[in-house]
TrEMBL record:
Top-level taxon of the source organism: Eukaryota
Molecular-function annotations in GO: protein dimerization activity
Keyword tags: Cell membrane, Glycoprotein, Membrane, Transmembrane, Transmembrane helix
Membrane topology: Multi-pass membrane protein
Membership in a protein family: Belongs to the anoctamin family.
Alphabetized InterPro entries for the sequence: Anoct_dimer, Anoctamin, Anoctamin_TM
Organism: Anolis carolinensis (Green anole)
Annotated TM spans: 277-304, 355-375, 439-466, 486-507, 534-552, 650-673, 701-725, 805-828
GO cellular component terms attached to this protein's record: plasma membrane
Protein name stated in the entry: Anoctamin
Domain Anoctamin transmembrane: 266-850
Domain Anoctamin dimerisation: 43-263
């Protein structure tokens, strides 16, 4: 009881409302008394100590309800936590809110001595001296200058040589002003590091600590660093910077959509982790420009040459396609249909299934390698410029959640010293086995949903085939655009997209729970583990339907007399006579477009609406001037995972752009347009709608790099297989070179005439099985034969309905094409990877120069001074010794 009384008195002393006055007096003071009508003030009441972090909680005495014991328990934990912060030499000051007296803001200040102590513990790199290396202008510097932000508005940051901070060698560091030596972002990082390790309870001899645990349990409502000003108005306070205002005006505003990003200011304000994301997104967008131009060129080539597409002309010709009657594509409910129904789809297919598609697929295989290799160089430059070269080895700390579970003692193999870990080797294996099983279970659940979509496609095709009119008088216009295949494809794509979004929301929580149970040691390991789980799920979720259409639909259908059934009940789907490429394009368009629209609604509209509702619910808010900490409190929190979902969104898009680009050459152009908006939308969101995030260090984009490299390798295979098995390019080439010229004919007369008739096999209606006979239709009452898409011998042949020689020629050509294309592209990819070094020569020189100076300043110079002191002492000793010994020798 005595301990509780001391803590309650301590809270009353460290939380005086509105300065050094009593609580009762404070309630009658005007709400502007503390910040003197300066809403962007970032200091304590004395105007000297900077606010490095803000904690928010609700006063238990103001809460309504009967859970007094629960509220008192929460108050004890908070009091213990704040007393622990004070014992760590942090300085706290508190005030009530202007709008609502229930909330109390605890402002945290980290003094200079504490900053120096924890900067050394965290191995933070700080300036030694200004850099003396000359910068070399790029060959395209004049282009960058045209699109860059005006240097008079956002002045370039001075470049320094840096080294891990050491408190004993404070004089060696470049300190002009103690108030500016540690940037606000660095101060916030140190404050958050201390807050994550502050204790608040001890239970079962295990310490409970960390602001995150207190936030999860509701003891604190929020914890955040402050923005430095309002985003839409320049601060009038001369002591307050205006970096947020500059970022909004020169970075987040829509008018800057074509400008380069001020990455140094982004990094300075939000930290390296945010900066590296926007650097990667900007670099990816710039590289997409080249892919978009080539893709647009290939699309225009197909568009302008579509009239020369002989096989499409044959489909639309009433004397050719009009006389071809196709076999039913389902049992009993379907009837015969005329080939000219697919005229419009064949014209569209000529745009995408052209020679330009092959060229573009080869180009994208090389483009993705150039993108990844040049990004490695750019990332190496940023690692040096932003002082993260040795981040993982020196600076990253253990997660507080990991520390809290360290109960087992083991011997470190390297240091041969005892250290505490949260689980034994056997326990770690059990955890990994459980996590792996859970991930596989959810992936199988996605596969089950894909199978459900396939069953839907098979069953609904029967409905559309029975209800949609088939070349009946007055409905030809409808049939040009609304075929059973098209209706099934569009409806299935929409349903698939809805299921994808629902499963995403469910699995997001499951993946976090699994990773929390896995208990990674550092934040980087945590994010990499979560990244792997989420991407595996998203990969199956987003791409499975595309893989089905590209590589399975229409490949195992048998023939009308002996069709193949799915699950023993549903007859497998068939492709149009021109192949499934157009359907794959439709699927990609719906998923990519729907995903972009949904993400923008989720990322922009929802935070904006929440903030708008919050402002509307705050009575008389517009009439009062609010301090900076209260303004920021009413913004949205970005959440624990930060930019994880932004990376995930872009990498999934990267997969669509590379994996299936052979079917949709406009994908890079759509991605480019989306990313130009995405950069500004993300910038606007974090600058205006969210609280300032805790600045974090990051060496690169983490696990996303190997994921993209895996996608790049897989993309070569998928695009080669799409051209070989999904498109109709290889059969057309085989026909063009092998069967289009009669024996002993003139080889200059190569033509595609007769291709459609050659690729459609003949089936006798009398060979239908009873359960497969089509529905009766008076128009086809006298039909004796029908055609179907395959290469089989006709009825009456010795090997009727067996594959003919053309089929084996096509199979051999497809396999040869895949092998040749893969080997050529892989050879070029590995050659490019070998030729382009991951770190440029200039960056290597800078790193060596910095290490040399660090060695000179922090190690060799002190040794020289020690040697000099030792030498002077020795000379003095010798002189004294010589003076005393001389008389004896005389």
């Amino acid at each position: 009881m005595e301990h509780l009384r001391v803590l309650e008195e301590l809270e009353q002393t460290i939380i005086p409302s509105y300065g050094a006055v009593t609580n009762q007096q404070a309630l009658h003071m005007p709400e502007w008394a503390e910040f003197n009508l300066q809403p962007d003030s970032l200091y304590f009441n004395d105007g000297q100590r900077r606010i490095d972090f803000v904690l928010v909680y609700e006063d238990e005495n103001k809460k309504e309800g009967h859970k007094k014991s629960f509220h008192r328990k929460q108050m004890r934990k908070r009091q213990a936590y704040q007393s622990n912060l004070i014992s760590r030499a942090l300085q706290l000051e508190a005030t009530r809110t202007v709008l609502d007296e229930k909330c109390i803001f605890v402002k945290v200040h980290v003094p200079w001595e504490v900053l120096c102590k924890y900067a050394e513990i965290m191995h933070i790199r700080l300036p030694l001296q200004p850099s003396d290396l000359k910068t070399h202008d790029s060959a395209f510097g004049w282009i960058r200058k045209f699109f860059s932000v005006d240097k008079e508005i956002i002045k370039p940051e001075q470049d320094f040589f840096t080294a891990p901070f050491e408190n004993d060698r404070l004089s060696d560091f470049y300190i002009q002003d103690k108030d500016t030596f540690f940037t606000p972002a660095t101060r916030s990082r140190i404050a958050y590091f201390i807050l994550c390790r502050g204790e608040y309870a001890i239970r079962d001899n295990v310490k409970k600590f960390g602001i995150n645990k207190l936030l999860d349990s509701g003891i604190y409502k929020a914890a955040f660093p402050l923005h430095d000003s309002r985003f839409n108005h320049q601060s009038q306070d001369p002591t307050c910077p205006n970096e947020r205002y500059l970022l909004y005006r020169e970075w987040a505003h829509p008018r800057n959509i074509l400008k380069l990003q001020p990455l140094d200011l982004v990094r300075k304000y939000y930290g390296e982790k945010i900066g590296i994301y926007f650097a990667w997104l900007g670099f990816y967008t710039q590289m997409l420009l080249l892919a978009a131009i080539v893709g647009l060129g290939c699309f225009l080539y197909g568009y302008f040459t579509r009239d020369n597409c002989t096989w499409s002309q044959e489909v639309c010709d009433p004397n050719i396609g009009g006389n071809i009657i196709m076999c039913p594509q389902c049992d009993q409910e379907c009837t015969y249909w005329n080939l000219t129904i697919t005229c419009e789809s064949s014209k569209k297919l000529c745009i995408f299934d052209s020679f330009g598609t092959l060229v573009f697929a080869v180009f994208m295989g090389i483009w993705v390698t150039l993108f990844l290799e040049f990004w490695k160089r750019r990332q190496a430059e940023l690692e040096y410029e932003w002082d993260t070269v040795e981040f993982l080895e020196q600076e990253e700390q253990v997660r507080p959640e990991y520390e809290a579970r360290c109960r087992h003692v083991v011997v470190n193999e390297i240091t041969q010293q005892e250290e505490h870990v949260p689980y034994t080797t056997c326990g770690k294996c059990m955890r990994m086995a459980f996590c792996t099983s859970a991930v596989l279970f959810w992936i199988l659940l996605i596969v089950a949903s894909v199978i459900g979509i396939i069953v839907y496609r098979l069953s609904v095709f029967l409905v559309f085939s029975a209800t949609l009119p088939r070349h009946i008088n007055g409905t030809e216009a409808i049939q040009k655009y609304l075929t059973p295949q098209a209706a099934t494809s569009v409806s299935a794509s929409i349903i698939s997209f809805i299921i994808i979004m629902i499963l995403n929301m469910v699995y997001e929580k499951v993946a976090i729970m699994i990773t929390d149970f896995e208990l990674p040691r550092t934040q980087t390991e945590y994010e990499n583990s979560l990244t792997t789980k989420m991407f595996l799920f998203q990969f199956v979720n987003y791409y499975s339907s595309c893989f089905y259409i590209a590589f399975f639909k229409g490949k195992f259908v048998g023939y009308p007399g002996d069709p193949v059934y799915w699950l023993g009940k549903y007859r497998n789907e068939e492709c149009d006579p021109g192949g499934c490429l157009l359907e794959l394009t439709t699927q990609l368009t719906i998923i990519m477009g729907g995903k972009a629209i949904w993400n923008n609604i989720q990322e922009v509209l929802l935070p904006w609406l929440k903030n708008l509702i919050g402002r509307c619910c705050s009575a008389n808010r517009s009439e009062k001037i609010l301090p900076r900490w209260e303004e920021d409190y009413h913004l949205q929190s970005i959440g624990k995972l930060g930019l994880f979902y932004e990376y995930l969104e872009m990498v999934i898009q990267f997969g669509f752009v590379t994996l299936f680009v052979a079917s949709f050459p406009l994908a890079p152009l759509l991605a480019l347009i989306n990313n130009l908006l995405e950069i500004r939308v993300d910038a606007w969101k974090i600058t205006t709608q969210f609280r300032r995030m805790v600045p974090e260090k990051a060496q690169g984009i983490g696990a996303w790099q190997p994921i993209m490299q895996g996608i790049a390798l897989l993309a070569v295979v998928t695009n080669a297989m799409i051209i070989a098995f999904t498109s109709d390019m290889i059969p057309r080439l085989v026909y063009y070179w092998s069967f289009s010229v009669p024996p002993y004919g003139n080889h200059s007369s190569y033509t595609m005439k007769g291709y459609i008739n050659n690729t459609l096999s003949v089936f006798a209606v009398s060979d239908f099985r009873n359960e497969s006979k089509p529905a009766f239709h008076p128009r086809f009452a006298n039909q004796t034969t029908c055609r179907y898409r395959d290469f089989r011998y006709p009825p009456g042949h010795e090997y009727q309905y067996h594959h003919n020689i053309y089929y084996w020629h096509v199979i051999a050509a497809k396999l040869s094409f895949i092998i040749v294309m893969e080997h050529i592209i892989y050879f070029v990819k590995f050659a490019i990877s070998y030729i382009i070094p991951d770190v440029s020569k200039e960056t290597k020189s800078k790193i060596k120069r910095e290490k040399y100076l660090t060695q000179m300043l922090l190690h060799e110079n002190p040794l020289k001074s020690v040697k000099k002191n030792i030498g002077s002492i020795a000379d003095k000793f010798l002189k004294e010794a010589d003076f005393t010994l001389r008389p004896k020798y005389e």
